[in-house]
Amino acid sequence: MIQTSRLSVEIGPHEILRGIDLALPPGQITGLVGESGSGKSMAALAIMGLLPDGMRTEGRVDLDGRNLLELSERDLCRIRGKRIGMIFQEPMTALNPLMTIGDQVAEVLRIHQGLDRKAAQERARDRLDRVGLTAPRFPLTLYPHELSGGQRQRVAIALAIALRPDLLIADEPTTALDVTTQAKILDLLKALVRDEGMALLLITHDLAVVAGIADRVAVMQHGTIVEEGPTEQVFRQQRHPYTRALFAASTHQPRLVLPRAEPRPLLQVEGAVREYPLPRRSLGEARGSLRAVDGVGFRIEAGESVGLVGESGCGKSTLTRAILGLDPLQGGRILLDGQEIRAGRAMPAGLRAKMQVVFQDPFGSFDPRWRVERLVAEPFHLTGLPRDWREQVAEALYEVGIAGDAMRRHIHEFSGGQRQRIAIARALIIKPRLIVLDEAVSALDVRVRAQVLDLLAGLRVSHGLAYLFISHDLSVVRQITDRVMIMEKGRIVETGPTHKVMDAPEHPYTQSLLAATPRIPVDWHVHEQVSRVALSTPAP
Amino acid sequence: MRASLILGTLLSGLALAAALASFVWTPADVTQLAIAQKLLPPSGQHWLGTDHFGRDMLSMIMVGARTSIAVALVAVGIGMGFGVPLGLLAAARSGGWLDEVVMRGNDLVFAFPSLVIAILITAVLGPSALNAIIAIGIFNIPVFARVTRGGALPIWTLDYIRAAQVAGKGAGRISIQHILPNIANLLIVQGTIQFSLGILAEAGLSYVGLGAQPPTPSWGRMLAEAQTMVALAPHVAIIPGLAIVVTVLGLNLLGDGLRDALDPRLRRSP
């Protein structure tokens, strides 16, 4: 059994972790939840002895009565992998792209157990079978690029459990995955803990994931554990105000916006088709093609909020690019306010100005070398720069709740949530009719997400905006859209009022999506007014 | 600040200072021959000695630095002036026929041994400093085109480029407003490295008599002329050789230092 007691980590004068007491008994899943910057990943690294240079630790991390913090790097190497395994969020970078999956798993066995190549390969086969990558469909000779994200995460799990460790640390193992894949990986982790008697420390920001899988849960804020106990008890009682605030935010419902009485079509998509040529398999062969968007048709009324939900690869990004006038269609057409959208320069500036976009990644959405005022003013390119553009930028920033002194600053000085507000200000600046929100809140912490959703709902009322809300996350879509479309393999398989689709899905794909979406059991919720103080802006 | 950056700045600053000082002052006139004082070793009067015509070596090195730096600077200018726009164009049309034409054209230029072609060009156009500049400059173009394209491609995939496109900006405007400022670091570093290569190339061309013509002093020709007298007066060969080595080393260190200082990927997070 691994146990930390009074574990603290400091870098210079800053305390990153303070007095962490965690017991990780075998056969149990412990959830560690908190927002970004709360120190949950640092706790994992401290247990593994993988903290960056310059950090000082205090307290104890006990494994069989030995304090890991006092061991030499050499001894720690022997313990890592063998006694403690770890899997990370990003399955793309956790594997070596130049080694076959069999060799990667076998390498661990050869290093730690001194097995010869053949024996190691046999064990690797066994471990890969265990994580669901069975022969003959998944031979040992596959390379990581031949696998999907979920399959790669399975290989990473096979690597971590190859030596049957006592403790498996999983740091946001399913955050980068689709919901159906996430459900399968969580099932796998659960079964592994049960069958192999491991302890699992599951680090996540998602309360619903923890609710479905963890035996115990610890809530972390500013480097301390503010509440800890059996999952159901913690969820039901919510003794600490921070726990309550987290819960309130994750189930937060923004204000209701009623659609207009007389619908007027704003965006019409008719029989949209977009194909990509596939690489030739041999020289003589004709080129195949992939239909990423296959005869999609829908419409969005003025002032309406519509969700587009699907898993990665379903074609929603391709469709978005076509709607934004970035890529041409091969068939069908898209009308915005009665005018046809064309890709590139063929689309008149006046038409473009009726539509703006907010992207997912708050870090890649802004040129790091520009100041905020110039960034927000960029869409004025479509309308001509008005004389009072600085005033208008200040006004747009004010509307999204960013202080005026932000204008002369660079984007790296802002947090993720602030950046997303600035992105919304940039979209608002030319007063468009439609804003495409491409996973716009997916990268945000729950409390910041709740604030941004509130902001979007408010802006919809004050500006009469229509939203196309693209997401893989059904729960977010539910909070902010009137109508939802479910997309699978380039087609829209189900569409209807959001609450209706969510409560009584008709298409089997929608049903499987909903079934896979983790949720907190309804009767666990505490129906209690949350104090406003706890919901205020999080400390930096 | 890193040691390589400081040392590099000092060494390349030394060459630059010598070149600039030569415009206002040299210890002696480099066109003044004094056969009687030929091949003197370094002394109080001639700090670096004299060559086979009795000219003051320090003055020769100072004026020679002028030639080296001018040739390398203009050659890098030619390389950047043509290469960067070509690279931006190729990146903006990545995967299209224009990209193919530009990049295959690059490959073509790369396929020739650069110094041999430079010799060919100067041999055809006649030896002069100007022709050396053109010859070296042409071979700088594909280097910059490639670095520019390589730096621009990942930036084209970022969301802020998408946002600029949604704001109706064309590829040209995006290249100038967004791409160029974000690859400036790369270009500065590459420029420093090409600068040092340009100095080497100029010395090489002058060495075979295809660079700056007499009486304009040049480090490469000083080396060539000293060749027969190495046994008699080693300093006439060692000094221009050292000047080249110090300058090139300085520029390379400066390039390395700048890369570390400017590249956020190599910078330690605060």
CATH superfamily of chain B: MetI-like
Largest interface: A-B, 28 and 16 residues
Average pLDDT value of chain A?
86
Topology-level CATH name of the domain at 2-248 in chain A: Rossmann fold
Oligomer: heterodimer
Enter the CATH topology name of chain B. MetI-like fold
Largest sheet geometry of chain B: none
- Give unreliable regions of chain A as ranges: 529-540
Mean pLDDT of chain B, rounded to whole units?
85
Q: How many separate domains of chain B?
A: 1
CATH class of the domain at 2-248 in chain A: Alpha Beta
General description of the model:
Chain A: It is found in: Cell inner membrane. Chain A: Belongs to the ABC transporter superfamily. Chain A: One of its GO terms (cellular component) is plasma membrane. Chain A: This is ABC transporter related protein. Chain A: GO terms for molecular function: ATP binding; ATP hydrolysis activity. The complex is a heterodimer of chains A (540) and B (270). Helix content of chain A is 34%, strand content 24%. Chain A has 540 residues and is α/β, with parallel strands linked by helices. Chain A has a domain at 2-248: 3-Layer(aba) Sandwich (Rossmann fold), CATH 3.40.50. In chain A, strands 6-7-8-3-9-10 form a six-stranded mixed beta sheet, sandwiched between helices. In chain A, strand 17 (434-438), helix 15 and strand 18 (466-471) form a beta-alpha-beta unit. The two termini of chain A are 35 Å apart. Mean pLDDT of chain A is 86; it is low at 529-540. With 270 residues, chain B is an all-alpha fold. The longest helix of chain B has 37 residues, at 171-207. The model of chain B has no long low-confidence stretch (mean pLDDT 85). Chain B has a single domain (3-29, 59-262), classed as MetI-like (MetI-like fold), CATH 1.10.3720.10. Chain A binds chain B through residues 324-326, 344-345, 347, 349, 352-353, 355-357, 359-361, 364-369, 378-382, 423, 426, and chain B through 158-160, 162-170, 173, 178, 181-182.
